[in-house]
Amino acid sequence: MTGTQDYIKDNKERFLDELLDLLKIPSVSADPAYADDVRKTAEFVASKLTTAGADNVKLYETAGYPIVYGDKIIDKSLPTILVYGHYDVQPPDPLELWDSPPFEPVIKKTKLHPDGAIFARGACDDKGQAYMHVKAFEAMMDKGELPCNVKFMIEGEEEVGSDNLGVFCKEHAEMLSCDVVLLSDTSVIANDVPSITVGLRGLSYVEVEVVGPNKDLHSGVYGGAVGNPVNILCEMIASLKDDNNHITIPGFYDDVVTVSQDDRAKMNEAPFSLEQYQEDLKIDSVHGEKGYTVLEQTSIRPTLDVNGMWGGYTGEGAKTVLPSKANAKISMRLVPNQDSDKITELFQKHFESIAPKSVKVTVTPHHGGSPAVTPTDTVEYKAAAMAMKQTYGKEPIPQRSGGSIPIVALFEEVFGVKSVLLGFGLDSDDIHSPNEHYGLFNYYKGIETIPYFYQYYAELKK
After folding, report:
1. Which domains does the chain show, CATH number per domain?
2. Average pLDDT over all residues of the chain
3. CA distance 84 to 54
4. What angle do CA 291, 295, 296 make, to 5 degrees?
């Protein structure tokens, strides 16, 4: 990979400029107002794949946004890597909390990124990390050092649940057949502590609505006699956890896999400072499930969180109303053996059962996904570990992530292969939040590391 690495060094400035151009396109899949920009982003990615040397590049239409496909089959007897990524991004709201416009990328130095970081929506999740693969592929192709076959599948609906990806994968299973799926939508522990994600939590995401009177009422005339949906929704949500932050939904923990004390001890050997964690977040104390460390609470334990809540008057000044209805969006992160559909059903049944007769409750499921665990004794993991050791100079630590990538379980179901989660971001990169950013060190380190995964994987699969 000497030629490949030299090519990467010689083209760093261009690689960065191209990513900045990609980040300027507001590909917000959740908002139809950005539909043209989402498609424009897909076309940008397809164009760069073609330039990099991919064959059969095409936008495959779905019921939603298109999926970008391209491949390079150099020898059918060699192993095939399927690269997955997504070009859509989260909404940038609240805009007032950004230090610079979310789709006007700027580079600034930070404490954790002394070499500079790109501040823009999608910088880390997932445009920056997906684009690393395009540039690594370009470098290998230019120097004739691609050691195995590669296929690209980059979608535009990950941030809204990847509803159409499953259909696409099943309909094109032969075209997408591979030996391993490689994706970078995860993080490392620190820039000097490489790690590989070997576990992901699943997800159940719902929206709830509590409706009381048929219209907003005068809070003086009716207050005290008519049920207030906002008050009631708050009480219902508060009841979903006890004083130990244990979720109270009957049956919620029935299928949770108990992690051994030995494995828990190994997890907690990862570098972690509670004081620094609290300082970074500007909080005086953590607030999690009793009996578990922060590293455990954010990886091997399920959660229930309100992601948004609204109702009544929220404008400037005062308006004394008793609201007609209240709403909330709630996500539940799941651990191995928990089934998303089952948890959604348990939530709906319980939430409806605790509603007082003064209101009507509707629970609307949005999307979900299964948890996933990747073994560390496979050729795929070993190749990733060797690649990281090559570029970081030290063995990576296997770790479980608190996040969810539902398509990992889908890939195993449809293709019968495991995924390698070779991410390079930091948990502090504010993905899904204002001021999302991605370090230049991380971007370049990913481009440098990916070719070594190809090399070691091809060698180990012989």
Report:
1. 2-200+371-460 (3.40.630.10), 203-256+302-369 (3.30.70.360)
2. 96
3. 15
4. 45
